[in-house]
Amino acid sequence: SANLIPNLSDVHSAIASGDGAALQHYYQGYWSALHLNSGLEQVLFFKPDGQLFARWKEDTMHVNEPALSALARHVIVEEQPQRLLACAATCLYYYIVPVLDNGRSVAAVAVAASLADAVLSFQHMTGADMALAILAPNNTGDSTSDFNQPQVPALRRRVLAVSGGQQSIAILQDIPLGNIIADHRINVSYQNRHYEILPVPVPIGASIGSPSMLVIFDRTRNLQHLHAVAWKSAGVGILGLCISELMLMVLLWVPMRRLKRTAEALPLLGRGEFETVRARLEKTSRIDTIRDELDTLDASALDLADRLEDLQEKNRSHSNELDNLVRQLARERDFVSGLLDTAQMLIITQDSQGRILMANAYMLALTGFDYRELRGAKLTDYFSLPQQAADTGRELAALLHSDGASLRQETALRCKSGESRDVVWIHSSLGAENPDDAAILSVGLDITELHRVEKQASYLTEYDALTGLYNRHRFQEALQGILSHTDAQSSGALIYLDLDEFKSLNDTTGHDAADQVLHAVASQLQGLLPAPALIGRLGGDDFGVFFSHLDAPHAMQLARHIQHSLSTITLAEIPLSHKVSACIGIALFPEHGTVAQELLANADLALFRAKESGRGNLHLYAPDEGLMERVLNRVYWVDKIEQALADDQFELYFQPILALSSNNVSHYEALVRMRNPTGDLYMPAEFISVAETTGLIRGIDRLVLHKAIGALAELQRKTPNIKLSVNLSGRSFSNPRWLELLQTELAGSQINPAGLIFEITETAAVEDMASARALMEKVIALGCAFSLDDFGVGFASFDYLKQLPVEYVKIDGSFIRNLATSTDDQMFVKALVQAAHGFGKKTVAEFVENAEIVQMLRDYGVDFAQGYHIGRPDPVFGWVA
Q: Fewer CB within 10 A of the terminal residue: the chain, N end or C end?
């Protein structure tokens, strides 16, 4: 009927146009027939927005208009029919269909039929009574109190319709208290008759009033029949009864189990346990072609599980989408709020009167004011300078009347602590129409630290941050200013200092100790008498001091005084073995330069000449010394040595040393070579002197020590008692970390330390005899030995034999090379050998170049021989006899 009504002549056009009056006219003629023949109780017509514009029987039937309107809108949008069961004074079953016109939904038609007729029809068809019941008013929340329908207290329901009249109502009211609507049957005895009541939920998706059906079965006749059959069957005998019971049990066992499984599975649908329902019902499904009602019921339950699960998944998906949308909005809100609070800028808004409406967290943290103190106050009230506050007030007032303009200014902002901060503001007009809204956005940047850094940077462009002296640039400018105002008849001297071993001090004791030394040197220079005209720190450990009216003799005397004053510096941060000293270069004005740049360059050349002579030396510039060529040569080798250290281009060659008593190689000497990028080798004589004067020899010593211990480990694996001699520079004696480096290398190599011999020269040993002896004793305690190299060329060689704990004495080659022909050398070698043996030392003769010298050395009692006749240096271990 619902689909027929919109297609009635003239009715369709009235529905499509939404003309309620025309629809009343045309449809009135069909109503009686539809009401009588189809059992319709109501017909409702809805516009596309869900508004009800025509109805029939509204005077006698309850219409749940809001629910129907909402459902009608859904039907029109989705173009799918919908059902609704609404129960109040009676139950009406609504069926709502869309009305299509030219392929689009233009209205919806709802027809309603009463379930009371269905209740009566059920009684005629099944012989069982049925009652239609809904929740009692106090449970539904219905405020209506004029319902006179019978109540069923045990079920907390009222009966809207029932077949069987008052007897059925009495049966329902006789249900014992405590029973509720559930999925199990209720048995009731009434007037000696037995009834079974089965609650059946109404199989309609949407409903109002929580309706349910109660089917009342009269089981009296069945029970009486069963009793009669039982008495008759008793006559058949116990055996027949047993057989029949067994057959009955066999026949009903499987269906009942299936029915029980189905009944137990259906409640799980309400709890969303769909997989459990499928697992239980699929066990009862049959594959054969004969399907019964239980199979149909199982299939329907499985289909219902699929639909419910699909709906649940869609609902979950929609809920997740909504949650994501809410979270996204919250994140965006938090982001904007967090952006304002975390931005390292002052952000405030002001109204048209200049009163603060909002201030971010950075503004509060910087100024120290509470938000309640700032809100309502004027920003200009917190300016430190009254004139700035007055000017800003006028400019902000003018800004409000500008279209899209902004104002930039720098002001001093007063904090709660009294401190003043320099802030750059950018004020922008927001164009607010409401006087209470924000009219001006002010964004400020704190530039107090920037101003401080600018002042510090300005200071650092002229002064050294560590010592407070002029830096090199400012020193040169000031020196040029002094020289420009000095006439040619005046004199002056520039003293250029470079601290000795400062890089080593920095590496071994740390930057703090090195900084203390620089402070002490600056203090000594500032306390000089006569007072210098100018003092500056020209580099890392370079200082420049200029004196006016100073000639060459007095400049040399003053330079020696400076060296003496530096030697008196003692600090707890530096080791006792390190004495502060400096090499000094001196250039005179005007003899060696009339401008600052020339005078500095010549003093630097004189400093280079002083450093060539060793630590603690001074030199007066002389134009005819060719210092520039020597400086360039030194720079050339420094660059090559540094590159070789970085690229690991140093190699070890090994020269055998012969034990003259056994005529076997007892040990080797490791000799360093430097390879250039083209593959050529540089001999030590070409680069060692530069390396020693520049301090690069320490890096070479470390590299040689590492490579030599690695080579000795390889050599001892083949010949356990073999030894290796390694040359050690004098710089290593002044490096307190060298012993630590040796201990680390020995621990990581697993060599026998007794096979390691360190060769030192007399010059290295006597530079600081006490420190050298202390270091040697610590190295000997590790198991290593020492050899005194170039013995015989020093000033007090024999005295060193007594003071230094050396095991070997290497006679200088100048006494061996001409031993066969020089009687002086023969006498001297004999004396050296006797003296060395007298002190318990073993002797080694180097530069042995022929068999005749070998024999003479045996005759003199020399222990070992080394030279080209024994074997040339080679990158691999070997010996040529």
A: C
**Using one digit for the tens of pLDDT, what is the confidence trace for 809-858?**
999 888 999 999 999 889 989 988 998 898 899 999 999 999 999 999 99
Strands 151-152 and 104-114: unpaired
Strands 157-162 and 151-152: antiparallel
- Cβ contacts of residue 673 below 8 Å, gap of 6+? 650, 651, 652, 653, 681, 682, 683, 684
Residue 60: the pLDDT is 46
Q: What residues contact residue 145 under an 8 Å CB cut-off, 6+ apart? A: 137
**Amino acid letter for position 492:** G
Q: Is the pLDDT of residue 268 over 70?
A: yes
Q: Write down the CATH superfamily of domain 343-453.
A: PAS domain (3.30.450.20)
Distance CA 473, CA 356 (A): 50
Q: Which long-range contacts (CB under 8 A, 24 or more apart) does 54-61 make?
A: 54/20, 54/23, 54/24, 54/27, 56/27, 56/31, 61/90, 61/92, 61/112
Q: Which residue has 């500008």 as its token pair?
A: 402
Say what the pLDDT of residue 140 is.
47
- Total-model pTM: 0.41
- Assign 204 to helix, strand or coil: coil
Spatial separation of the C-alpha atoms in residues 273 and 249, rounded to whole Å: 32
Q: Where are the domains of the chain?
A: 5-116, 127-236, 343-453, 461-624, 640-865
Mean pLDDT on 378-392? 85
Supply 447's token pair. Answer: 């530039």
Give the CATH number of domain 640-865; options: 4.10.91.10, 3.10.450.50, 3.20.20.450, 3.10.105.10.
3.20.20.450
Question: What residue type is 304 in one-letter code?
Answer: L
Distance between CA atoms of residues 450 and 452, nearest Å: 5
* Tokens at 256, concatenated: 């009942």
Residue 418 DSSP label: S
Question: Residue 621: which residues within 8 A CB-CB, separation 6 or more?
Answer: 585, 586, 587, 588, 592, 602, 603, 605, 606, 627
Q: Quote the CA–CA distance of 484 and 596 in Å, as a whole number.
A: 9
16 touches 100 (CB < 8 A): no
E strands, 430-486, in order: 440-446
Q: Which fold has domain 461-624?
A: Alpha-Beta Plaits (3.30.70)
Report the percentage of the chain scoring pLDDT > 90: 18
Q: Which of 499, 550, 498 is nearest to 528 (CA)?
A: 550
Do 640-865 and 5-116 have the same topology in CATH? no
5-116 has which fold? Beta-Lactamase (3.30.450)
Task: Give 89's DSSP letter.
Answer: S
Backbone angles phi, psi at 382, to 5 degrees: -105, 10
Q: What is the rounded end-to-end Cα distance, in angstroms, of the chain?
A: 128
